[in-house]
Structures are given as structure tokens and as C-alpha cells.
Amino acid sequence: MDLRQLRYFLVVAEERSVTAAAARLHLTQPPLSAQLARLEHELGVTLLVRHRRGVDLTAAGRDLVEHARHLLADVDTAAESVRRIGQGRSGRLALMFEATTAWSVLPPMVRRFHAARPDVELYFREDRTDAVTEHVRAGRADLGVVHLPPAGATSTIGSGLDVEVVRREPLVAVLPRDRADTYEDPVDLAALSNETFFGTVRSEWGGIAAHLLGACRLSGFEPALQEVELVQTAVALVGAGLGVSVLPAAVERVCGPDAVTRPLAQHFPIVETGLLRRRSGTPDPLVRLFLRLASEIPEEI
């Protein structure tokens, strides 16, 4: 018994005529009759009673009609679901990100993707940079959103990952509002060398912490660094007057009333935000779409 036989049988049952069913199926009557006979032989029961006016269903035939309708409906549903996933119209996309991207590049990317594919389930997980890269490399996440280290993506990503830069922004000084006017605008980073710097925890992979350290060293000093888990914590401590920081320009959105950002007088490497994906041939349609939509977001510098 195969699906084609069941479909033929249902049409015959609906038409109550092999001749009418053959016309509806665009078949000649002999091959249709042969398929029906084969179905009855495989099941070992009589499904149809033939007479001059057409056919009638036996009790077994009526029972098969109900089962066949449910079975074929399930098959059609499964086929449509598979097609939608294969065409990137539905499915699930797992996205990992580091917290420092949550208020800048992540919202517009997710907003554009959800508008384009509202039926796709988006799964989010926030973690440190190293964890994001490892989850993507291991296939536990489809994409990762991270700040790239100042050395550039190609030399530091490591094996098995591809990166697409989706945002570039300058570094800025983050200062207590009540002391910001004591520094020139733009700020000479060397003038902050005696301050305590608040930054995110350093990782092997790099990220924002590497930008802060690199900028200070290019300015001729090693910062007194206090590490915290979140950029929001660093900003809050700066706002409390306990020190300063150097962060990507988007940090202005979370500064609140007690901290302000100022441009830096020196030129430092631009902070790049990258989308990471596993290097395993052609990405699936949802990953390709997310990458394309993310790359179309206008940059702010």
C-alpha cells in the first residue's frame, strides 16, 4: 500500500465511479482499476462493490476512507512544513550574543528578521564572547553576535568560523557627568592615565576589553583596570564618580543621568561587530537571510 493508491482510492470513493475518478485523475480506467485491485489484494479485503451504476464502499472501504483522509492530511501537512523550513519560511534560529551588543546592533537585526519571517522561532542566549564563539563552533547556535578584537576578525576568529562585519563604531570616553567639563573635548586619553578604568572581563578571544587596553597602550600608559561583568555596571560605576571607561559609541544609550560620552582626540581602531557562523558549506536559508538583512542595516559612522 502506498500513498498514490490511497489517493486514487479516495477519489473513487468520492466519485462513487471508477470512470469518473479516472477522468478526474487524468488516467484511463484500466490502470486505475489495476491500482485498486492491487490495494485490495495487499490489504486482503474487498473495499469496493462494483455495479452498473458505479461502486459502493464496503464496511472495510468506509473505514479506510477515514484513515486515508487523516493519513494523507498528515502527509500533506508534513510536506508543507518541510518545504517551509527548506525554503526558509519557518523553523527555528538560535542566536547567541554578548551583552554589549544588546542595545546597539542586535535590536535592528532582530526587528528586520522578525518582520521578514514572523513564523520563525527565534531562540536567544546571552553569554561572554568566548562562550558565544564556542557555541557557534560546536553547532549549538546558528549565529553569534560579538564585538571583534582590534586586530581584525580574520586572524583571531580561529578555525571553523566565518565572520561578517555588520557594524562599525568609534571608541569614546565615558566620564562622570559632574567632572566631564574638566577635560578637553575631544578627550586626550593620556589625560585620563591616572584614573581607574572600568571595563568588561578580559577573555582569550578579545572583544571590548581588548579595545580599551589597546587604546590606553597606544596612548602610552597601562590602565589601572577594574573588571566587571557588564558594560552597564562599568557605566554605573563611572557615573558614581569612581573612574572612567573607554567603550564603543553606542554605550551612550545606556549612560543615564550620571555619565556622559565624549569623543577621543586620538585615532584608535574602529570597533567592529561581527556575525559569526560555523564554516560548514552553504548555510541554511534562515542563516543566509539573517546575514543578508543584517548587512543591509545602515552604519552610524
TrEMBL record:
Top-rank lineage group of the source organism: Bacteria
Family matches, as Gene3D superfamilies: Periplasmic binding protein-like II (3.40.190.10), Winged helix-like DNA-binding domain superfamily/Winged helix DNA-binding domain (1.10.10.10)
Keywords: DNA-binding, Transcription, Transcription regulation
UniProt domain HTH lysR-type: residue ranges: 1-58
InterPro entries documented for this protein: LysR_HTH_N (IPR000847), LysR_subst-bd (IPR005119), WH-like_DNA-bd_sf (IPR036388), WH_DNA-bd_sf (IPR036390)
PROSITE patterns for the chain: HTH_LYSR
PANTHER family: HTH-TYPE TRANSCRIPTIONAL REGULATOR CYNR, TRANSCRIPTIONAL DUAL REGULATOR HCAR-RELATED
Family that this chain belongs to: Belongs to the LysR transcriptional regulatory family.
Name recorded for this polypeptide: LysR family transcriptional regulator
Originating organism: Pseudonocardia xinjiangensis
Lineage, top ranks: Bacteria, Bacillati, Actinomycetota, Actinomycetes, Pseudonocardiales
